[in-house]
Design a protein that fits this description.
By secondary structure, the chain is mostly helical. The protein is 54% helix and 5% strand. It contains seven helices and two strands, in the order H-H-H-H-H-E-E-H-H. The protein is elongated, with a radius of gyration of 19 Å.
Protein backbone atom coordinates (compact mmCIF):
# COMPACT_ATOMS: atom_id res chain seq x y z
CA UNK A 1 0.00 0.00 0.00
CA UNK A 2 1.52 3.37 -0.99
CA UNK A 3 2.22 5.82 1.80
CA UNK A 4 -0.08 8.87 2.07
CA UNK A 5 1.42 12.29 1.50
CA UNK A 6 -0.36 14.13 4.32
CA UNK A 7 0.61 17.58 3.11
CA UNK A 8 -1.21 16.94 -0.18
CA UNK A 9 -4.40 16.12 1.74
CA UNK A 10 -4.56 19.54 3.40
CA UNK A 11 -7.08 21.82 1.66
CA UNK A 12 -6.88 24.61 4.21
CA UNK A 13 -5.64 25.28 7.73
CA UNK A 14 -7.71 27.28 10.18
CA UNK A 15 -5.88 28.77 13.13
CA UNK A 16 -7.86 30.23 15.99
CA UNK A 17 -6.40 30.83 19.41
CA UNK A 18 -8.52 31.12 22.54
CA UNK A 19 -6.56 33.78 24.41
CA UNK A 20 -7.21 35.70 27.61
CA UNK A 21 -8.47 39.22 26.94
CA UNK A 22 -6.76 41.08 29.77
CA UNK A 23 -7.00 44.67 30.90
CA UNK A 24 -3.48 45.27 29.57
CA UNK A 25 -4.46 44.00 26.11
CA UNK A 26 -7.36 46.47 25.99
CA UNK A 27 -5.24 49.53 26.88
CA UNK A 28 -4.25 50.57 23.32
CA UNK A 29 -5.48 50.06 19.79
CA UNK A 30 -2.11 48.53 18.87
CA UNK A 31 -2.21 45.94 21.64
CA UNK A 32 -5.80 45.03 20.70
CA UNK A 33 -4.81 44.70 17.02
CA UNK A 34 -1.87 42.46 17.97
CA UNK A 35 -4.12 40.33 20.21
CA UNK A 36 -6.61 39.97 17.32
CA UNK A 37 -3.80 39.07 14.89
CA UNK A 38 -2.59 36.36 17.29
CA UNK A 39 -6.11 35.11 17.99
CA UNK A 40 -6.99 34.88 14.27
CA UNK A 41 -3.71 33.23 13.29
CA UNK A 42 -2.46 36.20 11.26
CA UNK A 43 0.78 36.15 13.27
CA UNK A 44 2.43 33.56 15.49
CA UNK A 45 3.37 33.96 19.15
CA UNK A 46 6.66 35.81 19.52
CA UNK A 47 6.53 37.30 16.03
CA UNK A 48 7.95 40.80 16.20
CA UNK A 49 7.19 42.18 12.73
CA UNK A 50 4.17 44.44 12.92
CA UNK A 51 3.34 44.93 9.24
CA UNK A 52 0.65 42.23 9.17
CA UNK A 53 -0.82 43.61 12.41
CA UNK A 54 -1.00 47.07 10.81
CA UNK A 55 -2.81 45.65 7.76
CA UNK A 56 -5.30 43.81 9.97
CA UNK A 57 -5.85 46.96 12.05
CA UNK A 58 -6.56 48.94 8.88
CA UNK A 59 -9.05 46.35 7.62
CA UNK A 60 -10.80 46.24 11.00
CA UNK A 61 -10.98 50.05 11.09
CA UNK A 62 -12.54 50.26 7.63
CA UNK A 63 -15.01 47.45 8.28
CA UNK A 64 -16.17 48.19 11.82
CA UNK A 65 -15.55 51.94 12.22
CA UNK A 66 -15.94 53.42 8.73
CA UNK A 67 -18.17 50.61 7.41
CA UNK A 68 -16.54 50.73 4.00
CA UNK A 69 -14.33 48.61 1.78
CA UNK A 70 -10.92 50.22 1.21
CA UNK A 71 -8.66 50.22 -1.80
CA UNK A 72 -4.94 49.51 -1.49
CA UNK A 73 -4.28 53.26 -1.54
CA UNK A 74 -6.74 53.86 1.31
CA UNK A 75 -5.20 51.04 3.35
CA UNK A 76 -1.74 52.44 2.71
CA UNK A 77 -2.81 55.91 3.81
CA UNK A 78 -4.36 54.57 7.05
CA UNK A 79 -1.29 52.45 7.84
CA UNK A 80 1.12 55.33 7.19
CA UNK A 81 -0.92 57.63 9.43
CA UNK A 82 -1.43 55.15 12.29
CA UNK A 83 1.56 52.82 12.13
CA UNK A 84 4.43 53.58 9.77
CA UNK A 85 4.96 53.82 6.04
CA UNK A 86 4.45 50.56 4.17
CA UNK A 87 5.21 49.99 0.51
CA UNK A 88 2.50 48.63 -1.76
CA UNK A 89 4.29 45.33 -2.37
CA UNK A 90 4.40 44.55 1.36
CA UNK A 91 0.77 45.57 1.79
CA UNK A 92 -0.35 43.35 -1.10
CA UNK A 93 1.72 40.47 0.29
CA UNK A 94 -0.12 40.64 3.64
CA UNK A 95 -3.50 40.99 1.93
CA UNK A 96 -2.74 37.88 -0.13
CA UNK A 97 -1.66 35.94 2.98
CA UNK A 98 -4.89 36.94 4.74
CA UNK A 99 -6.85 35.96 1.66
CA UNK A 100 -5.17 32.53 1.62
CA UNK A 101 -6.17 31.87 5.23
CA UNK A 102 -9.76 32.88 4.44
CA UNK A 103 -9.83 36.11 6.40
CA UNK A 104 -9.92 38.64 3.54
CA UNK A 105 -11.76 38.88 0.23
CA UNK A 106 -11.62 41.44 -2.54
CA UNK A 107 -13.73 42.68 -5.41
CA UNK A 108 -13.29 45.51 -7.90
CA UNK A 109 -10.10 46.74 -6.25
CA UNK A 110 -11.63 46.88 -2.76
CA UNK A 111 -10.63 44.66 0.17
CA UNK A 112 -12.76 43.53 3.08
CA UNK A 113 -12.90 40.95 5.83
CA UNK A 114 -14.71 37.79 4.78
CA UNK A 115 -18.42 38.42 5.35
CA UNK A 116 -20.56 35.99 7.37
CA UNK A 117 -22.99 33.80 5.45
CA UNK A 118 -25.87 35.58 7.19
CA UNK A 119 -26.23 38.90 8.94
CA UNK A 120 -24.57 42.28 8.96
CA UNK A 121 -20.86 42.06 8.13
CA UNK A 122 -20.31 45.45 9.77
CA UNK A 123 -21.49 44.08 13.13
CA UNK A 124 -18.42 42.74 14.96
CA UNK A 125 -20.24 39.98 16.86
CA UNK A 126 -22.08 38.70 13.76
CA UNK A 127 -18.86 38.79 11.76
CA UNK A 128 -16.85 36.98 14.45
CA UNK A 129 -19.51 34.30 14.97
CA UNK A 130 -19.72 33.57 11.24
CA UNK A 131 -16.03 33.88 10.39
CA UNK A 132 -15.15 30.20 10.19
CA UNK A 133 -18.60 28.60 10.41
CA UNK A 134 -18.45 27.17 6.87
CA UNK A 135 -14.92 25.84 7.40
CA UNK A 136 -15.91 24.40 10.78
CA UNK A 137 -18.96 22.62 9.34
CA UNK A 138 -16.91 21.17 6.47
CA UNK A 139 -14.15 19.99 8.82
CA UNK A 140 -16.68 18.59 11.32
CA UNK A 141 -18.47 16.67 8.53
CA UNK A 142 -15.19 15.14 7.30
CA UNK A 143 -14.18 14.18 10.85
CA UNK A 144 -17.60 12.59 11.42
CA UNK A 145 -17.34 10.66 8.15
CA UNK A 146 -13.81 9.46 9.01
CA UNK A 147 -14.98 8.27 12.45
CA UNK A 148 -17.92 6.39 10.88
CA UNK A 149 -15.51 4.71 8.45
CA UNK A 150 -13.10 3.93 11.29
CA UNK A 151 -15.95 2.38 13.26
CA UNK A 152 -17.03 0.27 10.27
CA UNK A 153 -13.44 -0.90 9.66
CA UNK A 154 -13.10 -1.79 13.35
CA UNK A 155 -16.30 -3.84 13.16
CA UNK A 156 -14.87 -5.74 10.16
CA UNK A 157 -11.58 -6.38 11.96
CA UNK A 158 -13.40 -7.97 14.91
CA UNK A 159 -15.30 -10.41 12.69
Amino acid sequence: MPELSESELIDKEVTLRNMRLTKEVLETRRSIARWLALSLGVINPGESRLSSVAVLDALLNFQFVKKSDPSVAELQEYITKNWESMNEKTLRYHLLRMKKIGLVENSQGKFYLKPPSMGDRYDAMTWAAGLYETDYREIANKIGEAIRELRSKSAMDVV
